[in-house]
Every structure is written in structure tokens, then in C-alpha cells.
Amino acid sequence: MSFAADRSSQSALTQLAAKLAHFRHLISAVLLQDMRSRFGASYLGYLIAIAWPLTHMGFITAAYFLRTQVAPVGDSPTMFVATGVVPYILCFYPARTMALAIAQNRQLLNIPVLKPFHILLTRCVLEILNAMVVLALFLFVLYMFDVDIMPNDLVEAAKAIGAAVFLGIGLGFLNVILTAIFGPFFMTFFVLVMIGLYLMSGVFIPTWMMPEQMREYAIYNPLLNVVEWLRSAYYTSYDAELINKPLVLYVAGICLALGLVGERYVRGRFFR
Fold first, then answer.
1. Which residues, 6+ apart, have CB-to-CB distance to 219 below 8 Å?
2. pLDDT tens track for 5-46
């Protein structure tokens, strides 16, 4: 009995390993195809995709530095605005580009073994990698301009960056479903909403400098809480205990769950 049980257990593990290997090869193939369909066959396309968010970050940072010589917090106006714009960009771009994943790879759905989930998962992996590359290049550029990029609490800074990307991915999964239902015009609405959240996220002024009426609503903005989260890793004047970190994680998790559940329901109707 023991020998038969061992054989059965080994067989189950072998089958599981084979399924995991097949899934890994499938995701790798879809990832390469997604990169080709989105960036083209040359590296230039990928560089352009990286340059967009990087330029966005650089433009906002440079404009703030030219306009403001004294930071509301800390000694560096560049670092102050950078800690505000980084969470926004790392959230906005994955959320926007994930919504286009199915439309840009619809031909792959003609392959019976592939499902919309495979395309969304590969786009998710690609967006996480892109976010890390953009962040690394942005910090490198700041370092070359003699800006102190090291936070007081490196672990907390990493958590805040991870939360920003997680929020972007969660919104991205939900955007896929809402775009499929309401059409491409939904993305215009999403961009306008994100601009509104951005303006109320404390990128340019700390929370305590906002008008009281604005602050009452702004504290429920997940982007603001991510910005405050990252700044708490850089500035000791920020009380990390007052930041609503669960709000960020709940919003991201709920959006991700709704996106995954919605994908199952709209797959046959919209993803053809």
C-alpha cells in the first residue's frame, strides 16, 4: 500500500510539473507575441514605450523645479515632486495599457488553447517589468543630476512602489472588462478620472496644505495615499500611521477581483 501510494504521489507531482512547464512555455510565447504586436520587431518600439512614461515623469519634475525653488517638505523640490509623480505614473500607465491587451492581441484568441486570461496575465507581467525599468531609469537620471534618491526607509519605499504598481494592475484588469462592455470611449472617461485623482493626490502640495474641504474628499483618493506612503519613506515629518494603506490595497484587490470575475462572464460575448 505504501509503495502504491508513493507511486501515485510521484505520478501526481510529475503531472503537475508537466502542466506548470506547459503553462510557462505558453505564457512565454504569448509574452513574446505581445511584445511584437505592441512594440514591433525592433528594439526601437520598446524604447519608445519606455520613453513615454519616462518623459512624462521628467516633464512634470522639470516644470515643478523651474517654477518652485523651495520644497514644501525637505530640501529638494525635485525629490519632493518626484515622490509624487512616480506613484501616479506607475499606476496610470499599467492601468491604461492593460485595457488594450485584448484588442492588440485578438488574433491570438483564434488559437484554441489560448484564453483571454493568458493575454491579460502576460500583459500584467510585461507592465510590471516596464514599470521597474522606467523607475530605475528615472532614479538614475535624478542621480546623475546630483539628487539624493535614497529614502530613509528603503523597505517602506519598496512597499509604496509595489502598492502603486498593484493599484495600476488592478485597475487595468477592471478596465479590460469595462472597455469591452462600453467600448473604447470608456478609456477617455478613465483618463479624465485619473487626471482628477492626480490633481487631488498631493503631488505638488502636502496634504496639510490643502483646503479643508478638498482634504475631506482627498483622503479617500487611493493615489493620494500611495503618494503619502512613498513620501513617508523619505520624510520623517510624514506620519506613516496616518496613511490609509489598507484603502490602497482594498481598491486594488477589489478591482483585480472584479476584473478576473468579469473576464469569465464577458469572455464568450466580447472576447471573440
1. 207, 225, 244
2. 555 566 667 777 777 777 787 778 787 777 777 776 666 777
Q: How far apart are alpha carbons 230 and 167 in whole angstroms?
A: 14
- Closest CA relative to residue 83, chosen from 137, 169, 164, 146: 164
DSSP tally for the chain: helices H, then strands E? 10, 0
- Give pLDDT tens digits for 156-204: 999 999 999 999 999 999 999 898 888 878 888 999 999 988 888 888 8
Q: How far apart (Å, rounded) are the C-alpha atoms in residues 86 and 139? A: 10
Model confidence pTM above 0.70: yes
Question: What is the SS3 assignment for 244?
Answer: coil
Asked whether 225 and 200 are in contact (CB, 8 A), the reply is: no
- Distance in angstroms between the alpha carbons of the first and the last residue of the chain: 49
Alpha helices by DSSP H, listed for 68-115, are: 77-98, 101-104
Region of 36 on the Ramachandran plot (φ > 0 left; ψ -120 to 50 alpha; else beta):
alpha
Q: What is the residue whose three cell numbers read 486570461?
A: 117
CA dist 29 and 128 (Å) reads 18
DSSP-derived secondary structure letter, 262: H
Amino acid at 271: F
Q: What residue has cell string 505638488?
A: 204
- Grid-cell match 481598491, residue found: 251
